[in-house]
Design brief:
CATH architecture of the largest domain: 3-Layer(aba) Sandwich
Number of strands: 8
Number of domains: 2
Largest sheet: 3 strands, parallel
Organism: bioreactor metagenome
Strand order of the largest sheet: 1-2-3
Protein name: N-acetyl sugar amidotransferase
Number of helices: 16
CATH class of the largest domain: Alpha Beta
Length: 370
């Protein structure tokens, strides 16, 4: 506890994986927000146009792939590519486990706003087994889905010979983590596996004991399959200053995005991550492992975009962070095929006991956010 501290600008915690701080106590996400104000975005726009022209279809086919959920970020990227750059994106959704009706509505609204779309439904039992293995082995409740939104999308793009893929933001750079890709537009499958899958890809696949057929949408294309494909995977946030709230407003206007009627579990916002029930467990596990949850992440975004003071952020984090997703627990138990005791044992296994103590059956923080 003596070594735990918070960013002096936002509230990123020193326990965040791969985060670094400067001599002012600013985390690398805040340093990047500062740097973005001085960045030559015109130069990066030139890079973008060059990239788009390289892959623009000469036969009238699809020019690029955009993974979407029906939420704000993928919708924004798809709109920008279609409306402002004249591209023809093929949008791809990998159906999450325990999808929510609001998410399903938003996806329908997105499709009806004029996009070509493919929905991938991986083997549901394989998804359940991998999500359960991720929950138990890595404390990551939707790890199977996290694999598939990368591996299945890449596989589909390769199979359809559409080698340019646009994901939304580089979360490591934007929110505090590895900065190795800060000045690099294109990233690799190796980067996906090492950073986004946190080096646990092979471990979880092996622990699942699933057949090759069941793992079809959970395995990246082989080197042989990638030969001669010129695969280019990039983040839109490399080419344009990323603003999640702006994305929300555009998606609401152009794609019919709807918000939740109340704030989401563990935070004060209601317009993001409304597609699946497992996200609430994911952010609660993040809180138990590292001491910060969804409210800390949302506060950081608002502070860095100048919409909130740090003092306001502290109050919101103290109020919302680490809420136990009680309303979804029966659903989790049925999905993972666990008893309540088995479920709680997994939580107990992953909790950081330097940061928390158990009181009346629940984990309570030993720290006060400041």
């Amino acid at each position: 506890m003596a070594n735990v501290f918070w960013c002096t600008n936002c509230l990123n915690m020193s326990t965040r994986p791969r985060v670094t701080f400067d001599t002012r106590g600013w985390c690398n996400a805040c340093q990047w927000a500062e740097e973005k104000k001085r960045l030559d975005w015109a130069k990066r726009q030139d890079e973008l146009r060059e990239l788009l022209d390289k892959f623009r279809s000469k036969e009238g086919g699809f020019d690029c792939v955009v993974p979407v959920s029906g939420g704000k970020d993928g919708s924004y990227v798809a709109c920008r590519l279609r409306d402002d750059y004249g591209m023809k994106p093929l949008c791809i959704t990998v159906t999450p486990a325990l999808s929510l009706e609001l998410g399903n509505t938003n996806l329908r609204n997105f499709i009806n706003s004029g996009f070509n779309h493919i929905q991938i439904n991986p083997d549901s039992e394989a998804m359940r087994v991998l999500n359960r293995a991720g929950f138990v082995e890595k404390g990551f409740p939707y790890y199977g889905w996290l694999i598939s939104i990368q591996a299945a999308v890449v596989r589909m793009a390769v199979n359809l010979n559409i080698p340019l893929l646009f994901y939304g933001e580089d979360g490591e750079v934007e929110y505090g983590g590895s900065t190795e890709s800060k000045n690099r537009a294109i990233y690799s499958i190796e980067y996906m596996r090492r950073i986004y899958l946190e080096g646990g890809y092979e471990k979880v696949l092996n622990a699942s004991r699933l057949s090759e057929g069941q793992l079809s949408f959970f395995k990246f294309p082989s080197e042989r399959e990638l030969a001669g494909k010129d695969l280019s995977i990039t983040h839109w946030s490399y080419f344009e200053s990323w603003d999640p709230y702006r994305n929300y407003l555009v998606a609401k206007e152009k794609c019919g995005l709807q918000e939740a009627s109340e704030s989401n579990s563990g935070t004060f916002t209601n317009f993001a991550q409304n597609d699946q029930a497992l996200y609430a467990l994911h952010t609660y596990m993040m809180y138990l492992k590292f001491g910060f949850g969804r409210a800390t992440q949302d506060v950081g975004i608002e502070i860095r975009r100048g919409a909130m003071t740090r003092g306001q952020g502290v109050n919101l984090v103290r109020l919302y962070d680490g809420q136990y997703p009680e309303e979804f627990v029966p659903t989790y138990l049925e999905y993972y095929q666990m008893t309540r005791q088995e479920f709680d044992a997994v939580l107990d296994r992953w909790v950081n006991k330097d940061l928390f103590e158990k009181k009346e059956g629940r984990w309570a923080p030993l720290f006060t956010v400041e």
